[in-house]
Amino acid sequence: MPTLLPAELKLWQSVESEIKKILSSYAYQEIRTPLLERTELFQRTIGEQTDVVSKEMYSFLDRKDQSLSLRPEATAGVVRAGIEHGLFYNQTQKFWSMGPMYRYERPQKGRYRQFHQVNMEAFGFEGPGIDAELMILTSRIWKNLGIDAIQLELNSLGTSESRKNYRATLIEYFKDHIDSLDEDSLLRLEKNPMRILDSKNQEMSELIDSAPKMNDHLDQESKDHFDDLLERLDSHGINHKLNHRLVRGLDYYTKTVFEWTTDKLGAQATVCGGGRYDDLVKQLGGKDVFGIGCAIGFERLVELVELSGKKDQNGQPKIYLVAVGDQAEAKSSELAELIRDRFEDCVVELNQDGGSFKQQFKRADRSESDIALILGDEEIENETIGIKTMREDGEQETISQHKLLDSIAEKIGA
Ligand code: ATP
Ligand code: MG
Fold first, then answer.
1. For residue 116, which of 46, 18, 15, 38 has the smallest C-alpha distance?
2. 74-86 tens-digit pLDDT
3. Whose CA is nearest to atom 19 of ligand 1?
4. I need a labelling partner for 325 at 20 to 30 A (CA). Which of 35, 96, 199, 392 fits?
5. If you measure from the C-alpha of residue 249 to the centroid of ligand 2, how many angstroms do you get, rounded to a whole number?
6. Domain containing 154: what range?
7. Which ligand is nearest to the CA of 249?
8. Which domain CATH number covers 286?
9. Please, are residues 28 and 96 in contact by the beta-carbon 8 Å criterion?
10. What separation in Å is there between the alpha carbon of 252 and the centre of ligand 2?
11. Which ligand has its closest atom nearest to the C-alpha of 297?
12. Final residue of a domain: which of 271, 288, 308?
């Protein structure tokens, strides 16, 4: 589980705030659910046979022998909370959340045991408009973050009814080719045959490509929904690719499923994944409520932003106060508060623990300050202060202390 260090969190924070702005402009509201839920919740929603539940969960017994798990994803908890608080009665809802998820996986680049997701979920919307909006919204996120190397892939899994028929067809097909199935696929054959389509085993690639396609087994309703969605994407100029093998790793999806993938991140290529889950709320004891959502893998997104080169310089101006002598130190602390009052966006750092002018200037340099303010005995006596622009090797000027705030405003363009 990686520790996130201050140096990398700068970019994290700017990506976070960009995403939050966009989510709120599409009327999504934040919800925060606990990191721990009953294990049973994930078993019932994600599905016992999925990789996530069968081998990736952090589960343990609490003091009353109740099995709890660290959340491996967000949707289950959001649906649980929505039912518990009556949020699905006669109203639509759009929620977002952001935070850590836990999966016991083999750690590697782009795959960690604690990772972060931005999740979006919308409830109570039946038509394909919301499917399209979710893809438009995510595509705006990529655009605003300066990412172009990203591609939308989608598929329809149909209603649970049409999936039952497809499942039977698929089992039949793979049984006819049972000698070509690997161990994993043999296990999936009876319990979760659609997951075979998701296999990364190159040797089975041909077999899978020739398998019957869900798209040819959709019921009319699912077909209409999907066609309508594709038209909307076209009219918004969102390029997309049908991927018949896209089934997603969790059991609760119905109709639309989609992923945003990139060829810039090696094997861990999926940056965002999601889909509809029209049966999920009811399945968990709630009303019959339509649902759709997706999750962005934050680590992968940040890496992609970094590779795209459009790094957001976190634009806060920084001021360092150099002060030599007791009186100067006291005064610098006083002035720092005045600066913070007036320039809320500024980072203001006071020199601590003394030191010569030379030593303190070194610290100001190392802290990557834009401006250094200088106070010594002479300045105290004359009620002046030295001000120096650090980045462009500016000259040091001496100004009267009561002109300080105006002079800073001028230098940082505030
Ligand atoms: P993958 O196929 O990469 O295992 P997944 O289908 O298991 O992904 P989802 O459950 O759809 O992943 O989660 C949504 C997103 O969260 C993924 O597309 C990915 O960006 C990110 N993600 C999932 N697992 C991890 C992980 N262990 N470490 C980092 N990011 C992850
Ligand atoms: Mg996975």
1. 15
2. 999 999 999 999 9
3. 297
4. 392
5. 7
6. 6-159+219-308
7. 1
8. 3.30.930.10
9. yes
10. 15
11. 1
12. 308
295 within ligand 1 shell (Cβ under 6 A)? yes
Convert the pLDDT of each residue in 180-217 to its tens digit.
Answer: 999 989 988 888 888 899 888 899 999 999 999 998 99
CA of 369 to the centre of ligand 1 (A): 38
Q: Which two tokens stand for residue 215?
A: 């798209």
Over residues 299-314, the pLDDT tens digits come to: 999 999 999 876 555 6
Pairing of strands 371-375, 318-323: parallel
How many angstroms does the Cα of residue 268 sit away from the middle of ligand 1? 8
Is residue 200 situated within a structural domain? no
**Count of domains in the chain?**
2
Mean pLDDT check: name the lowest of 235-239, 245-249, 399-403.
245-249
Residues 6+ apart with CB under 8 A from 168: none
pLDDT at 252: 84
CA–CA gap between residue 163 and residue 251 (Å, rounded): 12
Mutate to test the pocket of ligand 1, among 112, 270, 302, 303 (most ligand atoms within 8 A of CB): 270
**Residue 199 domain-assigned (yes or no):** no
CB neighbours of residue 124 within 10 Å: 18
Per-residue pLDDT at 226 exceeds 70: yes
